[in-house]
Design goal:
Blueprint (H helix, E strand, L loop, with lengths): L21 H4 L3 H4 L17 H16 L6 H9 L2 H6 L9 H22 L2 H7 L5 H7 L9 H12 L14 H14 L5 H6 L8 H9 L3 H17 L9 H6 L15
Helix pairs in contact: 3-6, 4-6, 4-9, 6-9
Length: 267
């Protein structure tokens, strides 16, 4: 009997990247599925993204060209070394061969890295994003189903900057986490971030881009403490509700609720 029990249990799974449950996504697929660029295995090889796959290859070429001293094999080996750990990051079994999985991680990882590096140059946006919905691409990078492990990005970036750190214009260029925060999050989603957290960064492990963004969006410990004190004070004085009233209660009070046609990340 015991031999029929799977060795891999949910409690022991290290996965951090999963699909949105059908009962949530069925009526609002556009909110949870990428619109412009697929990242990772869940939306890999979908026909609607054929043109974007070509753009990814151009970005892969540009990324490799940043360090001509490193051949493509070094990047492939770097991904192969973490392939098993990368598979374990996904909730669902990945129906790709090892070679195809490595190829996908390499292409998507280099695309993300080159995009972030290009975002550090304001001139690039006006030249290369005319045909794309720029903010849709950035929003796609923050979808839970559209992630690859952050350590894959770190491995690829480490290979790219090897033998070339002396040429970095800024010391922060050697730290991928700082690069992502400065070139992407602060620049395009800065209003949603906690300044103190951006300055100190997130000291714990980063699972993927969405995880890093989430951690930088959380209030710091002092803010949480202030919120707790304020909440306790309100509770004692019974002046304000501690939770958002139900839709029924809001309707009774005269509020009008309307369905939102689209969701966009605040810039």
């Amino acid at each position: 009997m015991l031999e029929n029990i799977p060795k891999r249990t949910i409690a022991n799974d290290p996965f951090t990247i999963s699909r949105i449950p059908p009962f949530i996504r069925d009526n609002h697929k556009d909110f949870y599925e990428p619109q412009m660029v697929p990242i990772g295995p869940y939306h890999h090889n979908e026909e609607r993204f054929h043109e974007m796959e070509e753009h990814k290859r151009h970005y892969l070429h540009d990324f490799l060209e940043r360090n001509s001293q490193v051949n493509a094999g070094a990047y492939i080996d770097a991904v192969k070394n973490v392939m098993k750990n990368a598979r374990d990051y996904y909730h669902e079994p990945i129906q790709l061969s090892d070679n195809k999985f490595v190829e996908m991680l390499l292409l998507d990882g280099c695309f993300i890295l080159e995009l972030i590096l290009k975002l550090g140059n304001d001139k690039h946006r006006s030249l290369c994003w005319a045909r794309w919905d720029f903010m849709s691409i950035l929003s796609d990078l923050l979808l839970i189903e559209n992630q690859i492990p952050f350590f894959v990005l770190e491995k690829l970036y480490a290979v790219n900057i090897s033998n070339s750190l002396d040429g970095c214009k800024n010391p922060v260029d050697s730290d991928l986490k700082s690069l992502v925060v400065n070139n992407l999050f602060v620049k395009y989603f800065g209003d949603n971030l906690q300044t103190s957290r951006v300055q100190r960064l997130f000291e714990g492990p980063v699972h993927h881009l969405l995880h890093l963004y989430h951690e930088l969006s959380l209030p710091n410990s002092e803010t949480r403490k202030e919120c707790y004190i304020a909440s306790s004070h309100r509770q004692k004085n019974h002046r304000l509700p501690l939770v958002i009233p139900s839709a029924t209660r809001l309707f009774e009070l005269g509020f009008v609720l309307r369905k939102q046609d689209s969701i966009k990340i605040a810039r």
